[in-house]
Amino acid sequence: MVRSPLSVSSPAPDRVAGRHALYAYLAVAALVAAMVRIDVDVPAIGHLGSALVAVTLLYAPVVIAWRRQEDLIDYGFRADPVGRGVRLGVGYVLLVFPIFAAGYFAFYEIVCGDRELRLLAPPGVCRAYRGLAELHAPALDWELAQFVLVQAVVVALPEELFFRGCLHELLERRLPPKRRWLGGGVGLALLLSSAAFALIHLPKDGDPRALATFFPGMVFGWMRSATGSILAPVIAHAASNVFVRVLDLMVLVR
């Protein structure tokens, strides 16, 4: 029998890791669902809810590592291998961003040009959309620089540490991938961690479009599995959020 080049010999499943992954996600999901509403329902106190979400996502892996007598390094909280991590993160940007930008512009050109299709766009966006003829460079000011910093430190790092570093790692121990592609596991653990990542985006606005985060979550999880580090997914995640912001600033008038 010839073994597929994608096949790998799987280690014995760690059933306790599966329970820890489930309990951790349920606890974090419940806390996040409550915290994100602070920004929506009590805007007077600023972005306190977002800050609490970041703290929760950072603290949860610490608690899990302590309970399992492990270290955050075991959950990918390290830069090594720096070279491969940077290449994968930058490679994602170079490959995905042009395709995403083309889809972004095509979507709003089509949807905002049709009264019935406008319902597919987020509320108010089509009123602000001025079309490709009004395309302009965004202002490179302190507000944008602050946004970049927040996305890297407050959003991408905590989310990647919990979802890819901790949750995905525990799920791969419980459900070891039977196949690998370029070193990254491809299996049920990847699907489950990506689904968990997508679902946690729903409570803030209740917008089903947020479930589309499942797809980049798949890529981020593969990066984590392939490198053993969260460096590549943090780069790709932060860059993705910033890129969407830049596209908005280029075509939307608020």
List the SSEs and their pairings:
Layout: H1 15-41, H2 48-67, H3 82-111, H4 125-128, H5 142-174, E1 179-181, E2 184-186, H6 188-199, H7 202-205, H8 214-227, H9 231-251
Determine the strand fraction and express it as a percent band. under 5%
N-end to C-end Cα span: 62 Å
Shape: globular
Helix percent reads 55-70%
Question: Any idea what the radius of gyration is?
Answer: 19 Å
Please count the helical segments: 9
Mean pLDDT: 88
Q: In order across it, which strands form the biggest sheet?
A: 1-2
Describe the sheet with the most strands: 2 strands, antiparallel
Query: In terms of quaternary structure, what is this?
Result: single chain
Uncertain segments:
1-5
Question: Can you count the beta strands?
Answer: 2
Q: Please give the domain count.
A: 1
SS-derived structural category: mainly alpha
Give helix and strand order, one letter per element, not per position: HHHHHEEHHHH
Structure notes:
It is a single chain. The chain is mainly alpha-helical. 65% of the residues lie in helices and 2% in strands. It has helices at residues 15-41, 48-67, 82-111, 125-128, 142-174, 188-199, 202-205, 214-227, 231-251; strands spanning 179-181, 184-186. The chain has a two-stranded antiparallel ribbon. Strand 1 and strand 2 (184-186) form a beta hairpin. The protein is globular. Mean pLDDT is 88; it is low at 1-5.
